[in-house]
């Protein structure tokens, strides 16, 4: 997948690529710090970092920047919205 | 090198996009436009009052000027509301509201003051809009950790406005 937007900077910049797999979802519980791709109604497929797993199982996701549109805007997301976990990040060469 | 390979593959197979959404331009928020819009509303009310006091009435010039002042007043009251809505909706987070519990009520007051400024030709209503927006600006800059000062705008209507001390 191609990353579009800058809310994960400096970890991921606009135009970087990520390889996303649903397999880790079958074997491992999602923990804070994992980068996930999920579907958010009204926003489409989004990539954010899990900040917190709430007791009810919902995930509070955050970007890195102040202007990031994330759970601070639309609230925690349901586990079933998650489509995969980032297993490989391919960064553009930065000078 | 890997990035180059993925770029080529992307061109061929059109990869899906994962949105790392942020507002565009990313993180650029400033209540200044809302404040200037509120000042413009006051200025238009003043110009309308001056026009009514003038000698020329009931001619095409009078109606042309009055229509233009009203149109600009309408536009800027709405612009003011929109700017505040965007900052409140996109920049202000839950923790900010917890720190400044007056924020939701203040924004609601600005929406109402903006509507009142459109509905009437009252200077008090326009001043009220500016006062609420100034308070909003003060909170905004406090959140950003930037001190503010209140100064008289260096242009008509020369009302007080909150500026960040950068």
From TrEMBL, chain B:
<dbReference type="Pfam" id="PF09055">
    <property type="entry name" value="Sod_Ni"/>
</dbReference>
<dbReference type="GO" id="GO:0004784">
    <property type="term" value="F:superoxide dismutase activity"/>
</dbReference>
<protein>
    <submittedName>
        <fullName>Superoxide dismutase, Ni</fullName>
        <ecNumber>1.15.1.1</ecNumber>
    </submittedName>
</protein>
<dbReference type="InterPro" id="IPR036502">
    <property type="entry name" value="NiSOD_sf"/>
</dbReference>
<dbReference type="GO" id="GO:0016151">
    <property type="term" value="F:nickel cation binding"/>
</dbReference>
<dbReference type="InterPro" id="IPR014123">
    <property type="entry name" value="Superoxide_dismutase_Ni-type"/>
</dbReference>
<keyword id="KW-0560">Oxidoreductase</keyword>
